[in-house]
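Limitations

Structures in this collection are predictions, not experimental determinations, and the ligand pose is part of the prediction. Treat each record accordingly. The example that follows, with glutathione as the small molecule, is included so readers can see exactly what is and is not provided: the inputs are given verbatim, and the output is the predicted complex.
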Amino acid sequence: MKLYQVPGTCSTASRIVLEEAAIMIDLQDVDLRTKSLQDGTSYLAVNPKGQVPALVLEDGQILTEGAVIMQYVADQAPASGLLPPPGDFARYRVLEWTNYIATELHKTFSPLNRPNTPAEYRELIKSTLLPRVFGVIEARLAENAYLAGDTFTIADAYAYVVLGWAKMAELDLSAWPRISAYLQRVGERPSVQKVVRVLPAH
Ligand SMILES: N[C@@H](CCC(=O)N[C@@H](CS)C(=O)NCC(=O)O)C(=O)O
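Predicted complex:
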């Protein structure tokens, strides 16, 4: 399989999941500004959305949307515990948190990475919108070591990468000590140590 990615962006969550699942992958870096690949060809021919990640399967099919790529990868390695099997209610708890991270955390952060986002909106994101999400995650981590329970899942790979953007946004996480401890704990996982390089996200 091949993963189109940019280190430090949300595609890094897919890399962590691939690593946790012990799946070998060919990595291809994308220039998100020009939407081009290192050989000069257009990334839009791979993924017309122009965003990372995109996963090319063994049969040539291309799968996009990080939250879905992570589910696909986790299902290739059921023993990893990254995502419980269909029919197990625990699966839906993992997907509930994965969806929350995608729609409420990731996409609330995204405008901070666009140069043309108005200052007033940036301020609203930092003062109100993100703290509301941080509060939900902080409360959850008071109950469990990980988002969906007591084991690491795809939701944690995703949350780890996106919460890591707080530093670049100059957001002080000290008001959320459980999040800070969680980032430290997840950051120590061998899979994370292997893949994480923090670069500006988009
Ligand atoms: N809906 C997509 C969004 C992915 C996304 O936002 N990717 C960002 C990097 S974190 C990106 O490629 N940004 C470049 C752009 O939007 O032009 C997903 O969940 O995978």
